[in-house]
Design brief:
3 domains, 10 helices, 26% helix, globular
């Protein structure tokens, strides 16, 4: 029996067809792990497996017909050794590729692994917004995922529902302190057309600052005080939306504004004074915001959060003026830039996992009331974290990204308003240390800045740099960033 098994194995591994098929199988498997492309690879992989099984069955049947005295292999030892070496080399080479695709977000496989670790599916039972409000969403999630008692919102929460009140879509990123006092984030996503379950992604990036401007409690209270059904009944449409962004400053704008008390009764808008600030809940018709003015509810109540409407108390890390002030040509964060009155750009996180992000580039021309996606993948498939943004005008701009925990950086330039970007490269300047070792420490280009009609930028060393006091290389451009000339090496304070 052992001799027959040995015979089958030898015949199998020395077959040239099997060796070629094994190489193709490993190649396609590594491609699948790196890039996904499930539909392109899966049929070929299945075909290889069927071929392996077919050849194996063929040899089993062939060996059974061989006379007991004919079990001796006709294959030379050299051929057997060569086959084993080839199989080993193929296995090691593509095994390393598959391993790299599984770690540090190096490929599609790593995202699948993170999805298995951090993704939860929750059945959505309380899906009628007229009956359960928005509490039903989080009550269902709490059945499987323990949420913090006090939740905060990162970005915005968007909900869409049908005429009968059935919710067919929502998406938002919330965060809070878990029962152990640690930061926890929850990306919640639901699309009725795809699944009847809520997708919850844990441990994403939410930049938790715990400002009361981002509280979720005002949303729940406002929705429970108003009648969404009555609000949308006057619109002859089949789908409606609800939008919440936390505390908003409306200034003197009163278009669509409705003040209500905790009993749901409407109040005169002049109660808000000249400047309206509120935790606004907007009800609207998706795609028809210009034709049909959204109803923007602002609740006046005695709840704990109401006292923060006109105070900077909640801003623990920066003054609210810095958060809300739209200064021409000034960036207030790494992922948003204010070009001029009403025109703003932002890198919106579309997919997240610990330390890495996929962004889309969005633009608004009305001060932030309506954002339009102008580039779904500005970093051309790369992942990382936005490190800055700078636009000279509505055509030429720059975006930066960090990699590997901030130790490396990349800079991209656009000439068509962000519709496409090209990565900028700089001369790799090497330096020799006292011990004779040659290094290239300057690998972190920062976003440019404008001075005296020229553009300047510094190529630094990133988070892991320590050469010459963490100095940088200064470059200048006289053609809006098309070409860059080296100026000198500078310290950070120069």
């Amino acid at each position: 029996m052992k001799d027959k098994l040995k015979k089958i194995i030898i015949e199998f591994i020395t077959n040239p067809i099997i060796l070629i098929a094994y190489w193709l199988f490993c190649y396609e498997l590594s491609t699948l792990c790196m890039y996904g492309r499930y539909k392109n690879n899966i049929y070929f992989l299945i075909g290889c497996i069927i071929l392996f099984l077919g050849v194996k069955v063929f040899y089993i049947l062939k060996i059974r017909k061989i006379n007991k005295n004919g079990l001796k292999s006709t294959k030379s030892k050299n051929r057997i050794c060569i086959s084993i070496i080839i199989i080993s080399m193929i296995t090691v080479f593509y095994g390393v590729k598959i391993y790299k695709s599984a770690v540090n977000y190096g490929g599609k496989l790593s995202w699948v692994i993170q999805s298995v670790k951090n993704e939860r599916k929750v059945k959505f039972d309380k899906d009628n917004i007229y009956k359960y409000g928005l509490d039903g969403i989080f009550e269902d999630i709490n059945k499987k995922v323990k949420l913090p008692k006090k939740l905060y919102l990162s970005g915005e929460l968007s909900v869409k529902f049908e005429k009968n009140g059935i919710i067919n879509y929502f998406e938002g990123l919330v965060y809070g302190k878990n029962e152990n006092g640690k930061d926890s984030s929850y990306l919640i996503d639901y699309n009725k057309a795809k699944s009847n379950k809520i997708k919850v992604i844990l441990n994403g990036y939410a930049n938790p600052d715990y400002k009361n401007a981002n509280l979720m409690d005002p949303l729940f209270e406002t929705v429970n005080c108003i009648s969404i059904k009555n609000t949308v009944s006057k619109w002859k449409e089949n789908e409606f939306g609800l939008l919440y962004k936390g505390k908003r400053d409306w200034g003197g704008n009163r278009e669509g504004i409705v003040l209500v008390n905790k009993n749901g009764n409407k109040l005169p808008t002049d109660l808000s004074g000249d400047n309206l600030v509120g935790y606004t809940v907007s009800i609207y018709v998706p795609g028809k915001e210009e034709q049909i003015t959204p109803v923007r509810y602002n609740l006046l109540t005695d709840s704990y959060w109401f006292k923060f409407l006109n105070t900077d108390e909640e801003d623990k890390f920066e003054e609210s003026k810095k958060e809300l002030g739209f200064v021409t040509g000034e960036s207030k964060s790494n992922d948003e830039f204010y070009l001029k009155d009403g025109v703003r750009y932002k890198l919106n996180v579309e997919d997240k996992a610990t330390g890495s992000f996929f962004y889309s580039l969005q633009q608004t021309t009305d001060g932030g009331n309506k954002w339009v996606v102008i580039n779904e993948d500005p970093f051309n498939g790369a992942v990382g974290e936005a490190s800055g943004m700078f636009f000279i005008d509505e055509n030429v701009g720059f975006i930066g990204a960090t990699r590997n925990g901030g130790s490396e950086g990349e800079l991209y330039r656009t000439e068509n308003g962000g519709k496409s970007f090209e990565r900028l490269t700089f001369e790799n300047k090497s330096v020799t240390l006292e011990n004779g070792v040659v290094i290239s420490p300057f690998d972190f280009p920062n976003v440019p800045y404008e001075k005296d009609g020229k553009l300047y930028l510094k190529v630094g060393q990133g988070a892991d740099g320590d050469y010459n006091g963490n100095s940088s290389l200064l470059y200048v451009s006289r053609d809006k960033g098309k070409t860059w000339d080296y100026v000198k090496e500078v310290k950070d304070d120069n």
